[in-house]
Amino acid sequence: MSTEERAAVAPPATWPWTAAGVLVVLALAAAARYLEQAVPEATEGGPLAGVGAAIEYPVYAIALGLLGNAVLAVTGLRDRLAGGFRTEFFIKTGLVLLGASINLGLIVTAVGPALIQAVVLISGVFGFTWWLGGRAGLDDKLRALLASAVSICGVSAAIAAAGAVQARKEQLAYSASLVIAFALPSIFILPWLAAVFGLSPAVAGAWIGGNIDTTAAVTAAGAIVGEDALRIASIVKVSQNALMGVVAVALTAYFAFRIERRPDAPRPGVAELWRRFPKFVLGFVAASVIATWYLGAGGSKAVIGVANDLRVWFLILAFVSIGLEFRVSSLKEAGWRPVGVFAAATGVNLLLALGLAMLLFSGFTT
């Protein structure tokens, strides 16, 4: 059954069902947060202590979301409750709050290598993914989403690209599913490979930050390696996040002026570019500026801590919603070509990020 056919037979969304869907998301998010805190305590001192301490909230949130998805699908309630699975709202809000944890002064003074790595990675990986997607015959909007997701910061970048190119919701859901499917194993595989290769904490952190697609997964993998690696991984990922707006503007202009423009249509103006631009990117930048000014003026770090805690909650809600919204049928409809393109791009990203990390961060001390 196609997406349009499902929409036609699905019951109309009503506010009680939407409210019930939000309650389901909140309940599963609370359970994920509980597991994040309770499992390390329960396994401490035992043979599973390392595993319990390594698993971060994205794993619990997505797993519980998928479990809830299966239960609701069996009971026939998923489509009725779907109005409350507000993945886009939750991830955008979490991304804006992420800006509050970024000190712009630190970025300016300490992330020269990270910015170089971010520019080269985004340019190289985005270009490769866009080219390969074209060779594979993918829709321009889908390959824009895949290229943005794999080269910048996963789901958040896919959302920004979706707004810029006016992608369909199904294309965004598909891209998000691929990001999660590839990011989760990376949380454990990359720290293990970093140890096998004998990488220094700085190089390991730069590799993790430049390769794993989601900020939450980068944080989890960096924490497994250690605090020094986590700091570098976060700076590298933040540098990529900061360039998300640049890519969004470029995609907006490219699709407005080249892909979708008809010969007889008027030339798109600034108003059209502004309409397509993802406004939450501005919130992300504004939060970073305000937090930097606030701390510089002697503000309390506890206030920033509250913003960070809220960010975690919204990201948990987003990951739960991703699990609840995931549909195997959407993967089947798109076919395996996008999977192959994303896998190949991930491989290129893996090698390029490792080379850049070794070139730019060897001998770097935190």
Question: Overview of this structure, please?
Answer:
This protein is mainly alpha-helical and 366 residues long. It has one domain (87-361). Helices cover 81% and strands 0% of the residues. It has helices at 3-9, 15-43, 49-54, 57-75, 78-81, 87-98, 104-110, 112-135, 140-153, 155-165, 169-197, 201-211, 215-225, 227-242, 244-259, 270-276, 280-296, 301-325, 328-334, 337-361. The longest helix has 29 residues, at 15-43. The chain is globular and about 55 Å long. The model is unreliable at 1-10 (pLDDT under 50).
In short:
By secondary structure, the protein is mainly α. The chain has helices spanning 3-9, 15-43, 49-54, 57-75, 78-81, 87-98, 104-110, 112-135, 140-153, 155-165, 169-197, 201-211, 215-225, 227-242, 244-259, 270-276, 280-296, 301-325, 328-334, 337-361.
Main sheet overview: none
Number of strand elements: 0
Helix count from the secondary structure assignment: 20
Radius of gyration: 20 Å
Which segments are poorly predicted (pLDDT under 50) over 5 or more consecutive residues? 1-10
In total, the number of domains comes to: 1
Percent helix among the residues? over 70%
Order of helices and strands: HHHHHHHHHHHHHHHHHHHH
**Could you say which overall geometry the principal axes of the C-alpha atoms support?**
globular
| Structural category | mainly alpha
- Average pLDDT, rounded to a whole number, is 79
The N- to C-terminal Cα distance equals 54 Å
- The percent range for strand residues is under 5%
Features:
globular; disordered N terminus; 0% strand; 366 residues; single chain; 20 helices; mainly alpha
